[in-house]
Structure formats: C-alpha cells, structure tokens
Amino acid sequence: MPAGEVGQIAFRRPDPVMLLEYWNNPVATRDKFAGDWLLTGDLGVRDEDGYFWYRSRADDVITSAGYRIGPGEIEEALLRHPAVRLAAAIGVPDAVRTESIKAFLVLAEDQQPSDALAQEIREFVKTRLARHEYPRDIEFVDSLPTTTTGKIMRRELRERERAKAASGHQTKSG
Fold it and tell me: Which residues neighbour 155 within 8 Å (Cβ) at sequence distance 6 or greater?
C-alpha cells in the first residue's frame, strides 16, 4: 500500500499472535481470511517510515455520494467546537447519497441543545472538512454507548437508526 493511502490492515500467515480459527465456526474463519492474509477489519494508513496508523473499523466507513469517509476526522472536527464534549458520526441511509452523515453529540455542561446550535456546529465543521464530510443531521444525546475501554460503539448507533427507519421514524437533515 502506498504511503498516505488508507487501506484494510491485514497480517500474513503464519504469525505467532494470529488466531488460527474460530472455535466450531469454519464459515467465520473462512470469511476472516483472504488466502494467507488475516483481515482485521481495521483501516489504517502507512506513513513514510513504514509505520501503520489505525484510522477506524472498516464497518464504520461511511459511503456518501461516492466518497468513503472515516468517522474519526468528522468526530475530531466536531470536538473542536467548544459546545461539544463527546461526538460520534455514522452513516444513515439516504436515497440520493447512499448514506448521509449523522452526528450524535453530548454537549458541554453549560450548553443547551437547539436547532440554532446544531446549525452553528454544522457551519463550524464545514470550515474544517471537505464539503461532503459535514454531518447533515445532528442529534443531541445525554450519553454515547461505549465499550468497557471507552470506545464509542458506532454499531449500536447504526442499529438504533435502522430500527427508527424500520418503524417509519424519519430524522431531519440540514
């Protein structure tokens, strides 16, 4: 992979730290490998010195209007706004774009959610990211689902959005 290009991180067999197989699950084992390569499900970028840097989970990538967008850069831009304490970005179904970007934000203690604040945050992010990367929908939440190690569980946020869509609940876009 050329330096600076994002791609899936994989390890070649045999490696002493690599899993050999999933217990009693040959299908999952087969799906985890491409030939002798273990597909980690993580995306990374190689720097000029040959070191790899983690970017995101492959299943967290948002496909919008032909672009493949990692949520990390969006979340970093959102977190630069002084009103935002925590941020998570996911792709939600969009008839035109395939997916549009939705942000879930936990506000700083002195902030109150409002449409005006959501628009202010959108405009703030637009000045820091490419035009196709800003969140068209912002939902203010009290907390974000996290693992025991503090990582945001974007999968759970995507599942919530799928359940809303299946029940006919629509979210507004900006």
Answer: 59
| pLDDT for res 79 | 97
CA-CA distance, 134 to 95, in Å (whole number)?
Answer: 18
**DSSP H helices in the chain:** 26-32, 71-79, 115-126, 154-166
Q: Is the pLDDT of residue 70 over 90?
A: no
From the options 3.40.50.970, 3.30.300.30, 3.40.640.10, 1.10.645.10, give the CATH code of 61-166. Answer: 3.30.300.30
Q: Is 29 helix (H, G, I), strand (E, B) or coil?
A: helix
Measured CA to CA, the distance from residue 8 to residue 61 in angstroms comes to: 11
Q: What is the third-level CATH fold of 6-59?
A: Luciferase; domain 3 (2.30.38)
